[in-house]
Structure formats: structure tokens, C-alpha cells
Design brief:
The complex is a heterodimer of chains A (478) and B (443).
Chain A lengths: L10 H36 L6 H5 L3 E2 L3 E2 L5 E7 L5 E4 L7 H4 L8 H5 L1 H4 L6 H10 L3 E2 L2 E4 L3 H11 L4 E6 L6 E7 L7 H10 L10 H4 L9 H11 L8 E4 L2 E4 L2 E4 L7 E4 H7 L2 H10 L2 H10 L25 H8 L9 H12 L3 E3 L4 E5 L5 E4 L4 E4 L3 H17 L13 E7 L8 E8 L6 E7 L5 H17 L3
Parallel strand pairs in A: 1-5, 2-6
Antiparallel strand pairs in A: 2-3, 3-4, 6-14, 7-8, 7-19, 9-12, 10-11, 13-16, 14-15, 17-18, 18-19
Helix pairs in contact in A: 7-17, 11-16, 12-14
Chain B lengths: L1 H25 L6 H30 L2 H24 L5 H25 L3 H15 L3 H7 L7 H18 L1 E3 L2 E7 L2 E3 L1 H19 L3 H20 L3 H19 L2 H21 L1 H11 L10 H13 L22 H9 L1 H24 L3 H25 L17 H29 L1
Antiparallel strand pairs in B: 1-2, 2-3
The chains are: A alpha+beta (478), B mainly alpha (443).
Chain lengths: 478, 443
């Protein structure tokens, strides 16, 4: 083709250049997406139970250890003479739910850290030696945020009762202790399995109540009601007044205070400290229920929690135009509101941390078998649940609960605690669930604790002393 | 010991691949032919080393002596192909030849590994297709240089292509919900792979005649017919490739932004409409938006692919250390996931960049061509190629919904191999034509 027609459109090369850049940009996006997937998304994908590849890793790697925050072994793999591997839990049932188990499905940290435990970061030289000896590589160790003494204190304080105790550092989100009862010894899981799965639902031995249990929040929900009052009347929230006779009447409806005790003349702080049901039920009628719903959303009711353990979602169902009975019940944490202990702890530690919620986490770092650090996890902010001023006001009210109100069990010269008790009724004729959620020291919070004792009765009498034991162990033991 | 060699060669392969890819782009910055020659030579060294290391691992894991023989014939083929091309055509673009060989090599490694696990003959058959296609398509640059009537027969391309597509629609075999192939006894053949090329020729020849409004309308009508037949055959990936190629060819031929805008608008409207009207389109989009919701069924393929890529990580699990066999159609559409799983994310990104490098080379050739017909051919074939790469890799990584197209030169499949060889060698022919012309000019 010697007699080519000359290209008359000089712009066409510019157009080709434009399209080349366009395609280049799309591919840049594709590669950036790929990098994002590898860096951010792939961890969840890898740990998905449908991913069959992790099982294959265990053929070349001996599952690593799970360690406490000071490096003591919570779970390890013991190799027999014949090369058989058994998972051993030196502390028995103490860390049953939070460390979990890796046979019969994987739960707790065993599931959360599965990929790390089955990866090996020993140096190349050692890998070569292992290869030549034809031995498996030792898996990485996972150093947790769990404190053995604190876990023991919480475990002993809860005793034989059903319930959960969780402690966390409000400024970082480190989970220091997590106890759920009833429990069992995970070393015996294979022998016990049939009885574990066939047990009655009330027993629920396999359930981690700290994250998966759902309970009516009872009077601990008054934190939310009080916060709404603070939001609507930031300057004169405490000017709310109520005269308590032990039973509050509204038409046909009546709300009783605990054991029908009459609190007399109350302002908001006193009503909060004494956990006066009448005062809070009545207060609920004056609040803006649309805004209340927004507040509940903001405090993570009906939302996904920033938590990597399996958990149950808390629910708050009161809309913007509820009936009177619904308002009376919801304002004091009864009715259809349901909440997990870990969620209650998150709200409490946000109050302790000036309104900012730190994401709760359990894995502090991953090291290779020789203890050299491979990956470290830093505290991450989730966001503000409330302003610093609101948190400050709530703290003052929660101090009053300890100093003048229902949580007198936490009065001590060693530190000033702040908190809220709850006695949540869930079924007529049964004892209420005993709640306590709080933190200490109030002016410089080091630890936040949430306690639930199923059918324990009064929060002040049953749950608060458990929190006291945990706080004592942490603050006095340090 | 075996595991050790596998681990070491895994990192070496990644390093070599990174070097190869670096050379691929470094090439563009050199002005002197000597420098270009040297960098292409280093690319060849990297490729042969990757090939050798990978087959060493494959041999150690399978312990089959025939793997050594298979390696040797593959290596012999690469030597003959790379040096034979230069013997036949003095002015060949070595970069394109190298990239062809590199992508084929990656495909051979992965298919040999997958065949060994699944006891299938994919790799051997692929090798036969490749040898046949490589030899047969060597003639194309010669034809392009000598036969100048190519621009005179637009309707031969246009109607011929349409008839082939219609034949598949009416009498084709269905696979994975789409009618893609015609069967003749044991041999099945996917016409749409070849119609992509005839389509580019048709559009280029039409616009070479004239870009009058009447001619544009006529061409658009035939292009739309192609797309509609493909949609009717449920070949969504094919339809998208034709559509995008046509819109951009129209834009480059006319320099009219209105056409481009109208085309993009129509395309978006058609996608939304297709999503509303056809359940099979909706299924794909839903599986893309949230594959985890239906992990056992509709989301199965894409989630398996993401497990593979994610677990492999940046450095890969090593050949034979992963489970790519879990991914449905891993040898064809999802081979990229297998590559990423076992050879690593870095290696996989290199593959993407090599494909992009080929496209850039195509566009540079298009820019250099003076005749509008040739310019449009080079540009159109470049678009066909890169859109297909984007649909494949984007689909496998969940960047976009999966549309079921192959990764050219890497995926298993005779039709795909043949058509990609034709595509590359047509562009190669244009490059040789141009270089020969320049040489004549210099004399």
C-alpha cells in the first residue's frame, strides 16, 4: 500500500494518548484496589471458616502459643514422641471462652488468631535447618492483652454463679480480663463434647456470655437516659426534680423502685445515685423520643460493634412516637431493650476516656517462636460517642453512685471509683440479673469493668463487689 | 529439602519477575537501539530462569521424569520462537515477542501445575495449541506488508463476523450459562474470539472510507448488531469488549467528543436496563456486591478466588502449596487467582503490568502509523486486548463483576490462544511495516 491516504486528523494521536491515559488510570485503580485488598481486607477473608487453606498450613507448621500480656502460656501445642500434637491449656477453665479451643471448631482467640498461629516467622536459616531435619516449622506466638492475675481475681469473685466479667483499659481498648460462666476445662473438650452440646440452653456452656449474652440492661441504661437529659438541657440538667414514694403511678401504670423503697425528694444526680426508677420513668416522658432513638444509634444499639470476636447485636426498639408504658419501661432499661456486657463496657469506657471509644482488642502483638516481634497492633480509635463535657458530667453522676448511692461496695480510700448498678428483671418470679458497670480511678481511669450475674438479685449487693475485687487487684496490685 | 528449594525458588521467581517487568518499562526510556537490544536480552534471561526454576519445583513435587521432557520441549519452543521471529523479520518488535513468551510461560507453569494435581491434559494441549498458533500466525506480518487490499473489503469482515456470531447464538453449545462455542466432533471452537479481530478490521475499514454521518450510522448499526447477538447469547464479557472497543474507535476516528459522551451514556443506560431485565446479569452483579451472602452457591467462585489471593499474600504459598483446584474454571477465567495464590501478589501485579506494557506498545505503534486504516487497526486491537485483560483480572479480584472472559496468552483454551496470536501478530506486522518504511526512507 504505497499510495497511503495521509492522515488528515492531526487530533487523532492526541485522542489515542487520551485513551492510553484513561486506561492507565483504570489500571492504576485496579492495582490500588489489589493492594488495598491484600493489606486491609485479606485478613478477614483468610480467617473465613469457608477458607479451606488454613487447614493445609498446619501440615507444615506446628500451631503456635497463645500468651498472656506478660508472656505466660495460655495455650500451647504439645508434641508427642510419635509426632502427635495435642493442644494444651495450662490454666484449664480459667480462660475457657476468651482463649477458646481449636478442636471441635475454633473459637475465641484460637479462631481470631488462627492465621498467625499457623504462620511461621522464624528466620530463613532456622527454616533451612528445620527443612533438612524434616521437621515442621514452629508457628508464631500470639501475645494477648490478657492479665492472668486480673482474670483470676474476676474468676474467683464471680465464683460459681452464672454470668460474665470483663475488664478493659479505657485509653487503649486493651481487654485485660474476660470471664464467662458456666465454663469447662478445654483440655477435656473431646471427652466432654457430647455433654457440652446436649446441655440445657440455660447452661449454655459453649457461649461466651461476655460478648454473646444478651440481657435487659436494667438500671445501667439510666446512663443513656441521663445522657439524653444532659443533651436536651446541657446547663440545667440537674434541675430535674422528683418526689419518690417507692411506687410511681401514671394512670393505670405503676413503676416500683427496688423493693419499693421510697427515695423522697430527688434531683437527677440523686435519682441516678439511688437508681430511682420512678424519677427516671417520669423523666423519660419529657424527653424527645426521636433524639433518644438517635442517641441509642450513636451509642451502638442496633449497630455492628467494633469487635472481632463473635458477639450478639444489642437492640433498642423504641421509636419516635412510643406509648406511655413503653417509655416508662425503656427509660429504666426494662422493656424490649437488650444489651451485651461487652457493649455496656464500651459505653462505660467511652465515658472514662472523655467520650472517645477505643476499639476493644485482644491481640497485642505476634512474635516468632523465639519471641522476636513480627507484627504489633496499636490502639485504634473508634470515634466519639459523646463530647468530653458530657462524659465529664456523667462521670460526676457515676461517682455519686459510689459515694452516696447503690454502689457503696466500691467505697475505698485507695481510689475513687465511678459506676452504675443495675438489677434487671427479666421474668416474673425470678431474681433479677445483677449488673455493674464502672471505672476507676474517676479522675484518671485505668480500668473499666462490667459485671453481670445472672439471677443474682441486686446489682449493688451482688455485682458491685465483684467489680471491686477486680479493681482492687488491678489498682492495688500494680 | 524439597520444601526449601520450593521456598527459595519462590522468592527468586518473584525477584526475576519484578526485574523483567522493570525492564519492560525501562525499555520505553531508551533511545539507542543498542540499549533496547540489551534490555530485551536481559528480559529473555529472566524469563528462561523463571521457567527453569518453576519446572524444577514442578519436577520435585511430582517426581515425574516426563516433566523434564516437557520442560525441554517448552524451552526449545521459546528459543525457536524468540530467535526465529528475528530471523524471519529483521525489524520485529522484540518487546512484544518477549512479552508474548513471558505470558505464555506463566500460563504453561500454572497449567502444568494444575494439570498435575487434577490429572488433566490441559498443559499438553495448551502447548500444542501454542506451537500451532505460533507457527501459523508467523505469516501474518508478511501478509500485512504485501497485501494492501485489506482495507477494501469492510463488508466481508462485518457480515462474516455477524454470521459467525449468529451461528453460535442459534446452534452453539452452552457452558456456564453462556453460548460461546460451536462444536465439530471433538473440536469446539469459539468464534467470538476471532470475530473480535474481524470486527476491528471492519470498523477500521469503514472509517477509513469515510467518517461522514451516514457512514458512522451504518457502522454503528452493524456494531450494535454484534453486541446484541452477543447479549442474546449471554456472552456479557464479549458484548462489553465489542462495545468499549467500538466507542473508543469511533472517538479516535472522528475526534468527536459528542460520540464518546453519547456512547458512554448509552452504555450506562444499557447496563442498568440489562440489570433490570435479565436475571443472569443481576445474579452476577449481586455475587459481586456481596459474594459472602451466598458463599455456597452464587458467590462460590469469587469467594474461592478471594480466599486464594488473600491466603497467598504478597509472596504466594509456593507452587503446589495452595489449593487453586478449589476455584471453579481455574484453568481458564480464574487462572489469575491461582497465579496470585501460589506465585504471590507481587508476581500477579507484575503480570498485570506486563499486559499494560503490551497495551502501551500497541498505542505507540498506533500513534506512529500514518494511514488511518492501520492506525485504527492498531488502536482497536489494543482496546480489544486491554478491555479483555481488565474484565478478566477485575472480575477475578472482585474489582468489577465477573464476566467470564479469558486472560489472553495465560488462560487455557485453543480459540483464545489462536486469536491472541493473530491479534499480536497483526500489530507486530504493522510495526514491521513501519520500520521497513523508515529504513527505506533513511537510505
Amino acid at each position: 500500500m504505497k499510495n497511503k491516504r495521509k492522515d488528515t486528523k492531526s487530533g487523532s494521536n492526541n485522542n489515542i494518548l487520551f485513551v492510553t491515559y484513561l486506561i492507565g488510570a483504570v489500571f492504576l485503580l485496579l492495582v490500588l484496589y489489589f493492594v488495598w485488598f491484600m493489606q486491609a481486607e485479606s485478613e478477614d477473608v483468610i480467617n473465613n471458616p469457608y477458607n479451606g487453606r488454613l487447614a493445609q498450613l498446619s501440615e507444615r507448621v506446628v500451631r503456635g502459643d497463645i500468651l498472656s500480656n506478660d508472656g505466660r502460656i495460655l495455650a500451647e501445642t504439645v508434641q508427642g514422641e510419635d509426632g502427635s500434637e495435642t493442644r494444651s491449656y495450662p490454666y484449664g477453665s480459667l480462660f475457657c471462652h476468651v482463649v477458646g479451643w481449636s478442636t471441635r471448631g475454633k473459637t475465641g482467640l484460637e479462631s481470631l488468631a488462627d492465621f498467625y498461629l499457623l504462620s511461621s516467622h522464624i528466620n530463613l536459616g532456622e527454616k533451612i535447618i528445620q527443612e533438612i531435619m524434616d521437621e515442621k516449622n514452629p508457628g508464631d506466638h500470639v501475645v494477648t492483652t490478657l492479665d492472668i492475675e486480673l482474670q483470676q481475681a474476676a474468676y474467683d469473685a464471680l465464683g460459681d454463679r452464672r454470668g460474665a466479667v470483663i475488664a478493659m483499659e479505657p485509653s487503649t481498648g486493651k481487654i485485660l480480663a474476660m470471664v464467662s460462666k458456666p465454663d469447662f476445662d478445654p483440655n477435656q473438650i473431646n471427652a466432654l463434647w457430647d455433654s457440652l452440646v446436649s446441655g440445657s440452653s440455660e447452661e449454655g456452656l459453649l457461649l461466651n456470655r461476655a460478648t454473646q449474652g444478651l440481657y435487659p440492661p436494667g438500671s445501667t441504661f439510666k446512663i443513656v437516659t441521663a445522657l439524653e437529659q444532659i443533651r436536651e438541657h446541657p446547663d440545667d440538667y440537674n434541675a430535674y426534680e422528683f418526689d419518690c414514694t417507692g411506687v410511681y403511678q401514671n394512670g393505670d401504670y405503676s413503676i416500683r423502685c427496688y423493693h419499693s423503697s421510697a427515695h423522697g425528694h430527688q434531683d437527677l444526680t440523686m435519682a441516678f445515685a439511688n437508681s430511682c426508677n420512678g424519677a427516671f420513668a417520669n423523666l423519660g416522658l419529657y424527653l424527645d423520643h426521636g433524639r433518644m432513638e438517635e442517641l441509642a444509634d450513636q451509642l451502638l444499639f442496633n449497630q455492628e460493634l467494633p469487635l472481632s470476636l463473635p458477639y450478639s447485636k444489642s437492640s433498642y426498639t423504641m421509636g419516635s412516637e412510643p406509648g406511655i408504658w413503653e417509655v416508662l419501661q425503656t427509660s429504666i432499661g426494662q422493656g424490649s431493650t437488650q444489651m451485651s456486657p461487652i457493649h455496656n463496657l464500651m459505653i462505660t469506657s467511652a465515658i472514662a476516656n472523655g467520650g472517645v471509644l477505643m476499639k476493644p482488642y485482644l491481640i497485642d502483638c505476634v512474635t516468632n517462636a523465639k519471641g522476636e516481634e513480627a507484627e504489633r497492633f496499636s490502639p485504634e480509635e473508634y470515634g466519639s460517642l459523646m463530647t468530653a463535657e458530657e462524659a465529664h458530667k456523667l462521670t460526676a453522676m457515676m461517682e455519686a453512685v459510689v459515694n452516696e448511692g447503690t454502689a457503696s461496695a466500691l467505697q475505698t480510700d485507695a481510689y475513687q471509683a465511678a459506676g452504675k448498678t443495675g438489677s434487671a428483671e427479666f421474668e416474673t418470679g425470678k431474681e433479677s440479673h445483677a449488673w455493674f458497670t464502672g471505672f476507676a480511678p474517676a479522675d484518671n481511669p485505668q480500668i473499666a469493668v462490667t459485671v453481670i450475674v445472672e439471677e443474682g438479685g441486686s446489682g449493688g449487693r451482688e455485682a458491685a463487689p465483684i467489680a471491686r475485687a477486680v479493681m482492687d487487684a488491678y489498682l492495688n496490685g500494680q | 529439602m524439597t520444601n526449601l528449594i520450593i521456598d527459595v525458588s519462590k522468592y527468586l521467581i518473584i525477584l526475576l519477575m519484578a526485574c523483567y517487568t522493570y525492564f519492560n518499562f525501562r525499555f520505553f526510556s531508551y533511545k539507542e537501539p543498542e540499549e533496547k537490544k540489551a534490555v530485551c536480552g536481559r528480559q529473555n534471561q529472566a524469563m528462561f530462569l523463571i521457567h527453569l526454576l518453576a519446572f524444577l519445583v514442578i519436577y520435585l513435587k511430582t517426581e515425574k521424569p516426563e516433566m523434564i521432557a516437557f520442560y525441554l520441549v517448552q524451552a526449545a519452543f521459546f528459543i525457536c520462537y524468540i530467535w526465529g521471529f528475528r530471523l524471519l523479520y529483521r525489524n520485529v518488535s522484540r518487546l512484544l515477542v518477549n512479552n508474548t513468551a513471558m505470558l505464555l510461560c506463566v500460563g504453561f507453569i500454572m497449567l502444568t501445575r494444575l494439570s498435575a494435581e487434577k490429572d488433566r491434559a490441559w498443559a499438553v494441549r495448551q502447548f500444542i495449541f501454542v506451537v500451532a498458533a505460533a507457527v501459523l500466525t508467523w505469516i501474518i506480518p508478511y501478509v500485512i506488508d504485501r497485501v494492501w487490499q485489506l482495507a477494501k473489503v469492510p463488508w466481508l469482515y462485518g457480515l462474516g463476523g455477524l454470521i459467525l456470531l449468529a451461528a453460535v447464538w442459534i446452534g452453539g453449545n452452552t457452558s456456564y450459562g453462556a453460548q460461546l462455542s460451536l462444536a465439530f466432533g471433538d473440536i469446539s471452537f469459539q468464534p467470538s474470539e476471532f470475530v473480535k479481530i474481524s470486527f476491528v478490521f471492519f470498523v477500521a475499514a469503514m472509517f477509513y472510507q469515510s467518517v461522514s454521518f451516514r457512514n458512522v450510522c451504518l457502522t454503528t448499526a452493524v456494531a450494535a448488531a454484534h453486541v446484541l447477538v452477543l447479549v442474546a447469547s449471554r456472552d456479557l464479557g464479549g458484548a462489553l469488549i465489542f462495545f468499549a472497543t467500538y466507542i473508543f474507535m469511533l472517538f479516535v476516528a472522528t475526534s468527536n467528543w459528542l460520540y464518546l459522551g453519547a456512547g458512554v451514556l448509552c452504555g450506562s443506560a444499557a447496563s442498568v436496563l440489562a440489570c433490570r431485565l435479565f436475571s443472569h446479569v443481576r445474579v452476577r452483579v449481586e455475587a459481586w456486591l456481596n459474594p459472602w451472602a451466598d458463599i455456597d452457591n452464587r458467590g462460590y467462585q469469587i469467594t474461592q478466588s478471594l480466599f486464594a489471593i488473600g491466603t497467598g499474600g504478597w509472596f504466594g504459598l509456593g507452587l503446589f502449596q495452595g489449593m487453586p483446584g478449589n476455584i471453579p474454571v481455574v484453568e481458564k477465567d480464574f487462572i489469575f487467582a491461582a497465579i496470585s495464590e501460589e506465585m504471590g501478589g507481587i508476581f500477579a501485579v507484575c503480570v498485570v503490568l506486563i499486559c499494560l506494557g503490551c497495551f502501551i506498545q500497541f498505542m505507540m505503534i498506533a500513534g506512529k502509523m500514518q494511514a488511518a486504516f492501520y492506525k485504527l487497526i492498531a488502536f482497536g486491537l489494543g482496546m480489544v486486548y486491554i478491555v479483555q485483560v481488565l474484565l478478566n483480572i477485575g472480575g477475578v479480584t472482585k474489582f468489577i463483576p465477573s464476566t467470564g472472559v479469558t486472560l489472553p496468552f495465560v488462560s487455557y483454551g485453543g480459540s483464545s490462544i489462536f486469536s491472541t496470536f493473530i491479534l499480536f501478530n497483526v500489530v507486530q506486522g504493522l510495526y514491521i511495516l513501519k520500520r521497513n518504511e523508515e529504513e527505506e526512507h533513511e537510505k
